[in-house]
Amino acid sequence: HTGGYDSDDDAGEVLSETGRYAPKQLAYDIASKALGGGERARRVSNLVGAVDSLALEGLRAAGRHGVARAGAVAYLCVLHIYMFALLFFGGSGPRATSTATMTAESL
What is the value of pTM for the model shown? Predict the structure, then answer.
């Protein structure tokens, strides 16, 4: 294993036939460079791997089940409508609290 990556599988090794990194090793290397290595970089790379696995499992479920596929499409539609509304209205819609009018006396 390379780069201090601790795993039971071969994900920490460079794929020799393609010359590219395995995904887990790439996540560790990026986290190491961003965070300076160590335990924190390992935890961040493990988190990235967990999020990746969750996303892949969600895609598998969406491929197998029509209801999951319809839910994913509905979610993406709502997300896009919300983002277009933010862009169109400039994020100036109603707010739960107004920080512009909040003062220490009002608390």
Answer: 0.46
